[in-house]
Amino acid sequence: MFARLKKPLKRLERRLNDPAHGGIDTAGGRRRNLLHFHLMDHAFLRVLWTNFAKVADGVYRSNQPSPGRMGRYKARGIRTVINLRGDQPLSYYLFEREAAERLGLTMIDTRLFAKKLPRPESLIELERIFRRAEKPFVMHCKSGSDRAGFASALYLMMIENRPVEEAARQLHWRFLHLKTTRTGVLDHFLRCYDRAHRATGIGLMDWVRTGYDPRAVTQSFKLWLKDREGWDRDLPLPAPRPAAAPKPAPLTGPRP
């Protein structure tokens, strides 16, 4: 039954969020995007449930805020909103960007995934965002469970120099994060870094730049799912990312 409903729902979603209808700049486009926001992006579930929590002094996490909640963030002193969902021109982004501009909030867009590990370059960029964002700031994804939890753990490690075991508490079932589903690959990132750190003392960002291979960690996560109890004893660490091949030196002799 659900499989039969999937295609009609996809068609409805495309129709409601069709840029040809004028985004949110026209009355009709605004109505369509509002329906998309509440029905397809599940904003109606987030009216009372915010998944809002403090991560560190001046740093908070939440699920996708509505324009009304953006106003409440402004009232409590929030200055910056870090959007972890990317800058796709979908209903949630259009309303959030409009509210940020109206309220004078700085909005920073980056993109993480709940079931896929980020590239090293994305983590380096995220650290730069954390260091430059004006506090107080709030970071959010859709539900505030996986990407917001992962980013919160990374903030504690990158900026606050907190240990992995403390940072890992940001990925917890109380935020509706599940470790033994595909979203558990985020926990496994922390697990693999922790093992590398214990073995060599390497810092997180040094590991990200020199030893972190998303594909190897993902494959290691699949093995971990098969044998969780034997992870610490039997399963090897993911191999470090191979070094990039040196670029050939430019030709300097005269052209023929």
Could you describe the 3D structure shown?
A hairpin with a 2-residue loop joins strand 1 and strand 2. The protein has helices at 2-16, 27-40, 67-75, 91-103, 120-132, 147-158, 164-167, 185-200, 204-210, 214-226, 231-234; strands at residues 53-56, 59-62, 80-83, 106-109, 137-140. With 256 residues, it is α/β, with parallel strands linked by helices. The protein has a five-stranded mixed β-sheet with strand order 1-2-5-3-4, sandwiched between helices. Among the domains are: 49-163, Protein-Tyrosine Phosphatase, Chain A; 178-239, no CATH class. Helices cover 47% and strands 8% of the residues. Helix 3 (67-75) runs parallel beside helix 4 and helix 8 (185-200) packs across helix 10 (214-226). The chain is globular, with a radius of gyration of 21 Å. 34% of the residues are buried.
Major β-sheet strand ordering: 1-2-5-3-4
Largest sheet: 5 strands, mixed
Identify the CATH class of the domain at 49-163: Alpha Beta
Query: What's the helix-strand series?
Result: HHEEHEHEHEHHHHHH
